[in-house]
């Protein structure tokens, strides 16, 4: 590694085992392999130099951003070089006229949104970790978020990319325009590829006009999680077009209440938090409230101030941290057609009861993305058999209902054992062949995603 140290500016290559270990894992329970070193890159050229060296020396490379991933995609593999992009934090362009931003991968998601709002715009994707997750990580997993019911996932806001390939060549994909169909969609291919095809070093991102007024917000409580899911289906079917529609089950609410004392009622089994940022938001929210009550809500209230609205949304963003306080977590994110959401909720509840496993569930309910979190005692190197059995039932149920194994967290290491159930042999073969085109030596995040 001496030649790599010599080729990069001083301090870029880390060899201290304790420091390397701090970059070797994400937010999963997975134990990392022993990495040979870490590179803390600050520029595209430093990334290119690193990958050229890795190719010449046949060293696997694991790219990472902030390490907030939940599928193990940024977990170090044995003998790898960790390539951290968290120091590449520049927003190199923000054009109000064209409604685009150009950002490096280490930019914090919420920081890009704040920069856009200074010009009356917004960056729409907002994963729950938006205050700590990076644009690069969001691109790598095609992250969604609370507003994706209306504005789509990260791919829907990505116009073009600068990517360094495994051999150090620089590839520019996409465009700066709102439309463009020249050639194959390489931008879409790289978004969600989890660092297995190359390293994203810059992204041209679509911005949108920020709502003129703060969104109207409603919170509804239910005595049945399935009733809450039925209310979601009714809201979507009625054409209310929410900009946020988040569902939390009793176990999640209790975890938050035990931590933050939100005043959870004994009879409440689920809470639905909805927003509308449309011009007629008050009308839309009123209709959503009616539909909640028609589907069994015991209480529905509209926020009267922006501060109240922010407090309601903050409850949703606390969900994962609250569950981490209970134990180790296997975090999943199956996605089903929206009409199948009530049945998917029932399948999760049945799996929890059948295997006596604590499952805390939240959902980006408006697009059918369900996050069942399987909680187990700390200290295990992996989840106990009953947790895997319950997870297996949940995954198979999602596929049976016409859904997918992952809506936004990615495959990483955690879901590879189920991948063939969804992909099938033809898709699996094609994906391996595509990877071989970009990464013939299989050094880019090997063992992940496919």
UniProtKB/TrEMBL annotation:
InterPro entries: FAD-bd_oxidored_4_C, FAD-bd_PCMH, FAD-bd_PCMH-like_sf, FAD-bd_PCMH_sub2, FAD-linked_Oxase-like_C, FAD-linked_OxidoTrans_Type4, Oxid_FAD_bind_N, Vanillyl_alc_oxidase_C-sub2
Record Pfam families: FAD-oxidase_C (PF02913), FAD_binding_4 (PF01565)
Record keywords: FAD, Flavoprotein, Oxidoreductase
Cofactor: FAD
The FAD-binding PCMH-type domain, residue ranges: 31-210
Domain of life of the native organism: Bacteria
GO molecular function, one term: FAD binding
Assigned protein family: Belongs to the FAD-binding oxidoreductase/transferase type 4 family.
This protein's name: FAD-linked oxidase
Organism: Acrocarpospora pleiomorpha
Source organism phylogeny: Bacteria, Bacillati, Actinomycetota, Actinomycetes, Streptosporangiales
């Amino acid at each position: 590694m001496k030649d790599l140290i010599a080729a990069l500016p001083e301090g870029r290559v880390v060899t201290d085992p304790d420091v390397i270990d701090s970059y070797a894992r994400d937010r999963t329970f997975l134990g990392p392999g022993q990495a040979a070193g870490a590179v803390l890159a600050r520029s595209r050229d430093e990334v290119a130099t690193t990958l050229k060296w890795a190719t010449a020396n046949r060293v696997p490379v694991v790219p990472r951003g902030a390490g907030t991933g939940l599928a193990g995609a940024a977990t170090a593999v044995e003998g790898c070089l960790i390539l951290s992009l968290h120091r590449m934090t520049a927003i190199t362009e923000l054009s109000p006229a064209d409604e685009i931003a150009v950002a490096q991968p280490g930019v914090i998601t919420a920081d890009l949104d704040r920069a856009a709002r200074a010009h009356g715009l917004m960056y729409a994707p907002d994963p729950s970790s938006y205050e700590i997750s990076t644009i690069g990580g969001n691109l790598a997993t095609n992250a969604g978020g609370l507003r994706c019911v209306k504005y789509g996932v990260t791919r829907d806001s990505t116009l073009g990319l600068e990517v360094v390939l495994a051999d150090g060549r620089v590839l520019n994909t996409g465009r700066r325009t709102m439309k463009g169909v020249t050639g194959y969609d390489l931008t879409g291919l790289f978004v969600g590829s989890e660092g297995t095809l190359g390293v994203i070093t810059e992204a041209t991102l679509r911005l949108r006009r920020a709502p003129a007024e703060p969104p109207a917000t409603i919170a509804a409580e239910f005595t049945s999680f399935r009733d809450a899911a039925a209310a979601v289906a009714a809201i979507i079917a009625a054409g209310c077009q929410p900009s946020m529609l988040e569902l939390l089950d009793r176990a999640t609410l209790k975890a938050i209440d035990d931590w933050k004392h939100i005043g959870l009622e004994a009879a409440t089994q689920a809470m639905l938090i909805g927003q509308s940022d449309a011009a007629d938001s008050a009308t839309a929210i009123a209709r959503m409230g009616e539909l909640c009550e028609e589907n069994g809500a015991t209480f529905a209230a509209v926020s009267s101030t922006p501060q109240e609205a922010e407090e309601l949304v903050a409850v949703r963003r606390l969900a994962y941290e609250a569950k981490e306080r209970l134990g180790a977590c296997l975090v999943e994110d199956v996605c089903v057609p929206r009409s199948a959401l009530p049945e998917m909720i029932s399948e999760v509840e049945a799996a929890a009861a059948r295997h006596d496993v604590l499952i805390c569930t939240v959902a980006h309910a408006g697009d059918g993305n369900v996050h069942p979190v399987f909680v187990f005692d700390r200290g295990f190197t992996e989840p106990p058999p009953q947790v895997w059995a319950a997870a297996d039932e949940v995954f198979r149920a999602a596929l049976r209902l016409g859904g997918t194994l992952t809506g936004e967290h990615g495959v990483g290491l955690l879901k590879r054992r189920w991948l063939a159930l969804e992909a099938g042999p033809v898709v699996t073969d094609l994906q391996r062949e595509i990877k071989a085109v970009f990464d013939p030596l299989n050094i880019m995040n090997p063992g992940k995603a496919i």
